[in-house]
């Protein structure tokens, strides 16, 4: 069962909304699900449900609320351009502050993990280096990961990339991380492109998506998920 909660960013006192789901069965920890640039769409909602079914309390912040409250868009070129505009207008620090508020909300009840996709994948990478209280993170096809490869990390991260991704050169990202963080596992999925966690999308291979989910869960279990 998913509801909506309102949280407050410590950066500027801004109030933003987040999808929220209680864990099914015994609670294993908390997960912050960080969206692509298309907002809290059906794919984010499905991911919230997946993590909840695995026993995690889940928050998915609506990180474009400063520009368009409750923003949701279709996966099409015009929406992609609009999303990029929202990212530039808001800036990374406010979005990271919203993620920190989610971590702080979940932390009193156990370890907190983060998983993010596209923009969210970049933000999870940055969160692992800049934020407090994160136990581990799973970063999917984030375009800013390579440029921030030298960022010191405060939490372990697993990185997932699609071989067929036209936007992110998987081998380049893997090579940069091998230099800067040889302990960070970087998995390249040969049958998938960008956005492959979104079941049913053209670039998604279900076997790849499910393998990546198992790897993310294994990292979380190795870092406190009971």
Characterize this entry briefly.
With 226 residues, the protein is of the alpha/beta class. Helices cover 36% and strands 22% of the residues.
Structure explained in plain terms:
The protein has 226 residues and is an alpha/beta fold. It has one domain (2-222): 3-Layer(aba) Sandwich (Rossmann fold), CATH 3.40.50. It has helices spanning 42-53, 77-90, 92-106, 119-130, 170-180, 206-222; strands at residues 2-8, 15-21, 29-34, 56-61, 112-117, 134-140, 157-162, 186-189. Strands 1-2-4-3-5-6-7-8 form an 8-stranded mixed beta sheet, sandwiched between helices. Helix 3 crosses helix 4 (119-130). The radius of gyration is 16 Å and the shape is globular. It starts with a strand and ends with a helix. The mean pLDDT is 97.
